[in-house]
C-alpha cells in the first residue's frame, strides 16, 4: 500500500506532531517581530518605551513609645492604716480635688437717685361772675355805678371825666375786631358762661387755665392799644369797682369784666 493510499484511507497525524508544528510557527513569527522592532529602533523610526522613574523609599524607625506616667495612689489621711501595712510614702501625696469656685456675681449697685420734680398745678380758669356781682358795674354810656364783683368790689363812685367815655371806647373797639369777638365767644362756651361776664383783669391780667400768657388771646392787646392811644386825661381817670363790656346786643351775648377797688385806665398798660 503506498502513501497516497494511506492518506486516502483517512489516517490522521498524532497530537504531539500538531503542537510541535504550531509552536514552531509562533516562535518564527515572534522572532520576526523582535528583529523588525530592533531594526526600526536602530533606524530611529521607533523610540523605545521609557522606563518609569525609580521610587525612592526611605525607611525610618519610629521613636519608641514612652511608658505611661506612674500615678501614685491617693492616701486618705483620715482612714487608719492597718498594723501590718508598710509606712506610707510621705514624699508625694495627692490631695482630693477641691470644688470649683462659685461663679462671680456682678456687684449690686445702689438704685439711681431719681429726682422728683413737682408738677406745677395748672392755673385756674377765668372767674365767671354772677348777675349780682355785676349789678352795679359801669357799662357803656353810663356814669358811676355802685356795685361789687370779685376782686373789683367798691361803691362805684367814679364817673366820666368830661368827654372821656372809656367804656364805650373799649366796647366799640372789641366789637369791631372779629378775632377778639371769636376768642371771647370761645372762652364763654368753654366756661359755660351763658351770658354771664368773664373777669379778665382784677388789678392784674388773669390767665385762663393752660392758655399761654395772661388775658384772653388778643383781648389784652386790643384793650391796651385803645388805652395807650386815648387822651392823657382819660388814661389817668380814677376808677372804682367793675366795668362791664358787652360784645353783642342780645341777652346771651358774651361779656367781659375788669376792675379793682381803686384803679386807673393806665394800670391796664402795666407789664408783668
From TrEMBL:
Residues 142-162 have a biased composition (Gly residues). This is Uncharacterized protein. Residues 80-89 have a biased composition (Low complexity). Residues 68-163 are annotated as: Disordered. Keywords: Membrane, Transmembrane, Transmembrane helix. The chain crosses the membrane at residues 20-40. Residues 96-113 have a biased composition (Pro residues).
Amino acid at each position: 500500500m503506498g502513501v497516497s493510499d494511506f492518506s486516502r484511507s483517512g489516517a490522521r497525524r498524532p497530537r504531539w506532531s500538531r503542537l510541535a508544528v504550531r509552536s514552531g510557527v509562533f516562535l518564527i513569527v515572534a522572532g520576526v517581530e523582535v528583529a523588525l522592532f530592533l531594526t526600526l529602533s536602530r533606524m530611529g523610526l521607533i523610540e523605545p518605551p521609557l522606563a518609569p522613574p525609580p521610587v525612592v523609599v526611605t525607611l525610618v524607625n519610629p521613636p519608641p513609645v514612652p511608658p505611661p506616667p506612674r500615678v501614685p495612689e491617693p492616701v486618705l489621711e483620715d482612714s487608719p492604716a492597718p498594723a501590718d501595712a508598710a509606712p506610707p510614702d510621705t514624699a508625694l501625696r495627692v490631695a482630693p480635688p477641691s470644688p470649683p469656685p462659685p461663679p462671680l456675681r456682678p456687684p449690686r449697685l445702689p438704685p439711681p437717685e431719681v429726682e422728683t420734680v413737682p408738677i406745677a398745678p395748672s392755673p385756674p380758669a377765668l372767674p365767671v361772675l354772677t348777675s349780682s356781682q355785676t349789678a352795679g358795674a359801669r357799662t357803656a354810656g353810663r356814669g358811676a355805678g355802685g356795685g361789687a364783683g370779685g376782686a373789683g368790689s367798691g361803691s362805684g363812685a367814679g364817673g366820666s371825666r368830661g368827654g372821656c367815655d372809656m367804656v364805650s371806647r373799649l366796647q366799640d373797639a372789641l366789637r369791631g375786631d372779629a378775632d377778639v369777638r371769636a376768642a371771647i365767644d370761645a372762652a364763654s362756651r368753654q366756661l359755660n358762661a351763658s351770658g354771664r361776664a368773664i373777669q379778665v383783669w382784677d388789678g392784674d391780667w388773669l390767665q385762663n387755665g393752660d392758655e399761654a400768657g395772661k388775658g384772653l388771646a388778643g383781648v389784652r392787646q386790643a384793650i391796651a392799644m385803645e388805652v395807650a392811644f386815648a387822651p392823657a386825661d382819660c388814661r389817668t381817670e380814677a376808677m372804682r369797682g367793675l366795668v362791664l363790656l358787652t360784645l353783642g346786643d342780645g341777652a346771651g351775648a358774651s361779656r367781659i369784666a375788669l376792675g379793682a377797688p381803686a384803679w386807673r385806665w393806665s394800670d391796664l398798660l402795666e407789664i408783668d
